[in-house]
């Protein structure tokens, strides 16, 4: 049958397939790294930092009022105005761009830009003169020293603003607001988008204990016993605390060498942070399409695809978008409508049916590996928490738009968790926005 993947392509994709033994070994390594991150004595050299978020209370449904949320996690950021009533959520939001020049400029420029957009938003929504509580989602590795104090560890996702690493980003935002002098905002909490996802899902489903992002980046947070959080510096009367693992960094000490391929190495070498965020680079939407492109180029050069004929488009880094992976895998089995359209856009109209079957297979290998890596990590946390049943809140474009990612994860996690534990995956509705407001609301509820 012509739609069968060619044996040589299958053979060449073997290193993208994770065996059960390899996954079991990775789970042992992830668990070890999580424990290192939580422990006072080993935290400093830990790769998976397991930062304490100081968020100790989940929403209970009594949160009321009007809140702002600021969501900064990529090339755009959002400002949101949220009204919380009894079981009702009214939300208005606006997206603002961050020009490339600001992404690589000074921290002062970045926060002045954010403060200006905040002020404009408040004018547009007639809350310019109100003093509103704000939850600040800041989706970069952060060492939190309290609910409203967080030091940036390192920039990711193409940002390189000077004067921010090692500094308190809440203070930088407050300084920018003060420089303007025209709006009153009380920053109640800073959080990561994973925490926002967990909080957003917990508002609807009180069983939610894990917040996962699989989008441009990949990260997870979970509810840990406060007594296990050795770096916790605060009120230890409350039994639980959300921990932001920053697991995207897993592997930078060699722990992923058992699964790294030539394509992963090439992506890493050409990234702006070589040697860092290796786990994330094998999973997230920022890199998935490029992984497929590198495999296509390599196999075409080896005369296994497209009659050995490459196109200028395919040779250009970043030209195989991650959305192409989702589109190609959305084709019905044996049909290659989307695949042909994508290959046409890439100047590969000469592709045969056999080529299309092979391209789809390569996409499946890359996305399945990503889903299995995420599942291994989630299973580690589920097994660690030992809750009889829990919900994992998930957000991010890869999980949301890839046609099979959810099913691949459910199937794999089932195999990897301890017998008797029940879990489900819940798509988060706007975790980083709604969740930020909820963290602010819960903080206000406490006061």
TrEMBL record:
Residue span(s) of domain Hexokinase N-terminal: 9-203
Pathway in which this enzyme or protein is active: Carbohydrate degradation; glycolysis; D-glyceraldehyde 3-phosphate and glycerone phosphate from D-glucose: step 1/4; Carbohydrate metabolism; hexose metabolism
GO terms, molecular function: ATP binding; D-glucose binding; fructokinase activity; glucokinase activity
CDD domains per record: ASKHA_NBD_HK_meta
InterPro entries, alphabetized: ATPase_NBD (IPR043129), Hexokinase (IPR001312), Hexokinase_BS (IPR019807), Hexokinase_C (IPR022673), Hexokinase_N (IPR022672)
Transmembrane regions: none
Catalytic reactions on record: a D-hexose + ATP = a D-hexose 6-phosphate + ADP + H(+); D-fructose + ATP = D-fructose 6-phosphate + ADP + H(+); D-glucose + ATP = D-glucose 6-phosphate + ADP + H(+); D-mannose + ATP = D-mannose 6-phosphate + ADP + H(+)
Gene Ontology biological process terms, A to Z: glucose metabolic process; glycolytic process; intracellular glucose homeostasis
Enzyme Commission identifier(s): 2.7.1.-
Signal peptide as annotated in the record: none
Hexokinase C-terminal domain boundaries: 209-442
Alphabetical UniProt keywords: ATP-binding, Glycolysis, Kinase, Nucleotide-binding, Transferase
A GO CC term assigned to this protein in UniProt: mitochondrion
Name of a matching Pfam family: Hexokinase_2
Described purpose of this protein according to its UniProt entry: Catalyzes the phosphorylation of various hexoses to hexose 6-phosphate.
Listed PANTHER family: HEXOKINASE, HEXOKINASE TYPE 1-RELATED
Family: Belongs to the hexokinase family.
Protein name from the UniProt record: Phosphotransferase
Organism per entry: Thrips palmi
């Amino acid at each position: 049958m012509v739609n069968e993947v060619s044996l040589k392509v299958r053979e060449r994709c073997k290193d993208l397939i994770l065996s059960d033994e390899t996954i079991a070994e990775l789970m042992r390594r992830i668990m070890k790294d999580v424990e290192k991150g939580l422990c006072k004595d080993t935290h400093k050299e830990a790769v998976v930092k397991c930062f304490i978020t100081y968020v100790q209370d989940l929403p209970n449904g009594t949160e009321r009022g009007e809140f702002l949320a600021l969501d900064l996690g990529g090339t755009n950021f959002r400002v949101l105005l949220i009204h919380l009533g009894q079981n009702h959520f009214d939300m208005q939001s606006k997206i603002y761009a961050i020009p490339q020049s600001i992404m690589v400029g000074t921290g002062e420029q970045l926060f002045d830009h954010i403060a200006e957009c905040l002020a404009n938003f408040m004018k547009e929504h007639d809350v310019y003169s109100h003093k509103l509580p704000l939850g600040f989602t800041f989706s970069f590795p952060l060492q939190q020293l309290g609910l409203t104090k967080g030091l940036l560890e390192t920039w990711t996702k193409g940002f390189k603003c000077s004067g921010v690493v090692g500094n308190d980003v809440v203070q930088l935002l407050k300084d920018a607001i003060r420089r303007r002098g025209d709006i009153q905002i009380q920053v109640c909490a800073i959080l990561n988008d994973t925490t926002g996802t967990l909080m957003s899902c917990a508002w609807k489903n009180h069983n939610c204990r894990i917040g996962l992002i699989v989008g441009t980046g990949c990260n997870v947070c979970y509810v840990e016993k406060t007594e296990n959080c050795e770096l916790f510096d605060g009120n230890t009367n409350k039994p639980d605390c959300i921990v932001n693992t920053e697991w995207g960094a897993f592997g930078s000490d060699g722990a992923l060498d058992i699964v790294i391929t030539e394509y992963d190495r090439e992506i890493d070498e050409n990234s702006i942070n070589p040697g860092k965020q290796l786990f994330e680079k094998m999973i997230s939407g920022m890199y998935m399409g490029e992984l497929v492109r590198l495999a296509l180029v390599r196999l075409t050069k080896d005369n296994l695809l497209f009659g050995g004929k490459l196109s200028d488009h395919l040779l250009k880094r970043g030209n195989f978008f991650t959305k192409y992976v989702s589109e190609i895998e959305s084709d019905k089995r044996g049909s290659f409508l989307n695949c042909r359209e994508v290959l046409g856009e890439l100047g590969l109209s000469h592709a045969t049916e056999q080529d299309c079957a092979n391209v789809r297979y390569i996409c499946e290998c890359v996305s399945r590996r990503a889903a299995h890596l995420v599942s291994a990590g989630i299973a580690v946390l589920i097994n660690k928490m030992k809750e009889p049943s829990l919900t994992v809140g998930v957000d991010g474009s890869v999980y949301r738009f890839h046609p099979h990612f959810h099913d691949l994860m459910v199937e794999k996690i089932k195999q990897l968790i301890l017998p008797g534990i029940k879990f489900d995956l819940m798509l988060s509705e706007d975790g980083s926005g709604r969740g930020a407001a909820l963290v602010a609301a819960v903080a206000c509820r406490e006061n």
